[in-house]
Amino acid sequence: MKDVTTIQVDKELRDMLKKMGKKGDTYSDIIRRLIKKTEYINFMEEQYEILDKEKEWTSIDEI
């Protein structure tokens, strides 16, 4: 078993986490899934920013 620690959250947040969970999920499972989704969203936002900053695009037909 991995080392575990305790974090304190209010009951409202605990209940929100429970609602996001699937049967058999631990709080660690739920939080890990939320972090992965957030990392993906942040990555995609960065990619769209890069695309938006590009001034000129070359059509694939021109290549």
Give the topology, please.
Blueprint lengths: L10 H10 L6 H27 L10
Compact summary:
By secondary structure, this protein is an all-alpha fold.
Can you tag this structure with a few keywords?
63 residues, mainly alpha, 2 helices
Task: Describe it.
- By secondary structure, the chain is mainly alpha-helical.
- The protein has a domain at 22-53.
- It contains two helices and no strands.
- The radius of gyration is 20 Å and the shape is elongated.
- The protein starts with 10 loop residues before the first helix and ends in a 10-residue tail after the last helix.
Q: Which residues form runs of ≥5 with pLDDT under 50? A: none
Q: What percent of residues are in strands? A: under 5%
The value of Rg in angstroms is 20 Å
Compute the average pLDDT. 92
The largest pleated sheet is described as: none
Overall spatial form: elongated
The N- to C-terminal Cα distance equals 55 Å
Written as H for each helix and E for each strand, in order along the chain, the element string is HH
Structural classification: mainly alpha
Helix fraction bin: 55-70%
Oligomerization category of the chains in this entry: single chain
Number of helices in the DSSP assignment: 2
Number of strands: 0
